[in-house]
Protein 1
Amino acid sequence: MTDNDRIVIEVMYKADYCLPCFYMDETVREVVPAYGPAIEYRRVDFMKGQGKKRFLELSCQLFGREAVEKRCMLAPVPSLFIDGELVCDAIPPVFELVDAIEDALSAKGIAFNKGEDK
């Protein structure tokens, strides 16, 4: 399956002690399996390794490199991105997450068979 055949969901995640991060991750993990291979989920642990780089990339995408470097404007934590676009900056209710996922899949022309009902 190629990137054109799925959407990528990323959650900006600080650490397990960050309860909003933990619950956003849990909400996404609860919903994603229903869509099978149509979704690739990535938890971006921005406090370590490659997560730092991705967090800065998404922050620059949101605000521009100058705003990030000179005004320290960064992506909200936690936040949820679908295909690099900020979708939620707080823990979404399940129905909003489902709607956002299905909108993204439809916009990309990806057919999906949902394993569970909304």
Protein 2
Amino acid sequence: MANQETELSRVLVGAAISAGFAFLFLTKSGKHLLDSAEPWLDEVIRDMQRLRGTAAKVRDAVDEGRRSFEAVSRLGSFGNGQDQPWASDAKH
């Protein structure tokens, strides 16, 4: 029973997609819709490319921050003075 429902849903989805393509490419109103959607799609693509560039810059900044943090943490701990040679003199 579940297999028949899966097959039926696949057939219905395929029919809906086919009907959508037929509308877009075979009717005047569908062609008009495609023509009016093209500038919008171009703008969406430009926005996605800008977003990708921004994400790359953020990723580079995070990587640089991580490298800086690791470099500073290798130099010693932050202010507790245990690893500093002058800290033992100050406690006496």
Protein 3
Amino acid sequence: MHRARFILLFTICCLVALAAPSAQAEDTMRCGSRIVSTGDGKDKVRSLCGEPTDVAFAGVIGRRAVPGYPNADSNDQWYYGPAWVEMPVEIWTYNFGPNKLLRKLRFIGDELVEIRTDGRGY
């Protein structure tokens, strides 16, 4: 009897844990009345949000070059330049004060690819 109750309770806890929303990266960030979103470039983010509090170089990542198409009738892809390109990865931190959360923006090359929150500002 106790074993059956334990299994039922364990199953319910697992289902609740699976249904709970997990922490995910956000697609947009508000800077005053302006909004930046993933896919934006560094210049746009800097012009809308100002200079970041901190910029950290996180390394280099290799990415496949963007394919081109020689003509509309052909499905053959071709690459202009090297097939793999090394791109710098930077983490920009924005501190909007003690009543707001820190924002960490991850750039690969010039493209904003991730926006995360990271504790209270200061």
